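Morning. Coffee machine broken again, so started the prediction first thing and wrote up yesterday's gels while waiting. Chain of 179 residues, entered below exactly as on the submission form.
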Amino acid sequence: MKPVNEFKVGDVTVKGGIKTTVTDVDPQTGAVEWDIEYAADYLKLYQQVQQLFKTVDKAARHSNAEPFIKDWGQDVRNLRNSLRTYLRNNKSEEYNRVKNVHEMSLSGEAGGYLSKNAFEKDQELKESNPGSTLGPGPKANEDGVKDNAYVKQFKYKLVNKKALNKQAKGIEVKHLWGK
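Came back before lunch.
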């Protein structure tokens, strides 16, 4: 609890669907008077509707195509979406709170996949040159990267593919990058 001297008439606090407004502070006794208004806790409401949706959706996927459960799941989805639309159109401050909390909960589930372009394909991917998109360094050709640190610094030698294929008699050789 705050000391009495920190309360000021007009201070407003909103928490858990309860809005309190300080209406009077008595300097002699330290008594503080509030007006209390009960309001909908939209964040809690949305979280509970979202949890209901997840539960029903999971049941619908595992109910062996029971029409009632699937229909009811669609009804719950529509309720969730209409609540979200109402908040977005009529209660923008509450909608932003809901959205931020919802995105934070998703980041726990999806980890690094939440970046803006996470699922977009790389437009510069070149099928004919698989090593061309591996970042800075020597570019790959059909035989791989010949000018790399393993060959230069550690004196590794590249595999002679023709000799290897001759030794592999009776074994089917599949070239992963085509030929």
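The chain has a mean pLDDT of 76. Going to sketch it on the whiteboard this afternoon.
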